[in-house]
TrEMBL record:
CDD domains: NDPk_I
Membrane-crossing residue ranges in chain numbering: none
Cofactor: Mg(2+)
Catalytic activity as recorded in UniProt: a 2'-deoxyribonucleoside 5'-diphosphate + ATP = a 2'-deoxyribonucleoside 5'-triphosphate + ADP
NCBIfam families linked: PRK00668.1
Key words of the record: ATP-binding, Kinase, Magnesium, Metal-binding, Nucleotide metabolism, Nucleotide-binding, Transferase
Organism: Tissierella creatinophila DSM 6911
Record-linked InterPro entries: NDK-like_dom, NDK-like_dom_sf, Nucleoside_diP_kinase, Nucleoside_diP_kinase_AS
Domain Nucleoside diphosphate kinase-like: 1-131
Protein name: Nucleoside diphosphate kinase
Record lineage: Bacteria, Bacillati, Bacillota, Tissierellia, Tissierellales
GO molecular function, one term: nucleoside diphosphate kinase activity
A Pfam family it matches: NDK
Entry superkingdom: Bacteria
Length: 131
């Protein structure tokens, strides 16, 4: 069965919609295999977002997560990577459809509630990195 890495980002924790997000994941039929609520180190966040190191929003992205609590999850189910990306919605607020997590809970480019791996390869990398 396919596995993906999910992170509820600091705005999701602070706004107390963690339960809502977890409910959506479980209602879809996915199984949460492992979960942890903690404050990741800056180096862990930088490693996670290494592909964006050169982007102009990189520091904003790292500062937003640094020193704050996130919830990380290993989620298992049929086509978990692709289906979770569909449930999460587009990162551009103007393209995040209502009914998706971002479409329903965020209108921001950086503070967008949740992260989900974008490929099976990245899911394996991120699960090994975070757990
Ligand atoms: P993640 O699931 O968090 O990886 O988001 P994504 O795969 O939908 O987007 P991407 O990997 O391209 O970007 C990672 C994160 O960087 C996004 O979720 C945003 O938090 C932030 N981000 C991406 N693009 C922009 C941008 O153009 N401007 C700003 N301010 N933040 C961005």
């Amino acid at each position: 069965m396919e596995r993906t890495f999910i992170m509820i980002k600091p705005d999701g924790i602070q706004r107390r919609i963690m339960g809502e997000v977890i409910s959506r994941i479980e209602n879809k039929g996915f199984k949460i295999l492992r979960a942890k609520l903690f404050k990741p180190s800056k180096s862990l966040i930088e490693e996670h977002y290494q592909e964006h190191r050169e982007k102009e929003f990189f520091h904003e992205l790292i500062d937003y997560i640094s020193g704050e609590s996130v919830m990380i999850m290993e989620v298992e189910g049929e086509s978990a990577v692709e289906v979770m990306r569909l449930m999460i919605g587009n990162k551009d607020p103007k393209l995040a459809a209502p009914g998706t997590i971002r479409g329903d809970f965020s209108n921001e480019k950086t503070q967008n509630v949740i992260h989900g791996s974008d490929s099976i390869e990245n899911a394996n990398r991120e699960i090994s990195l975070w757990f």
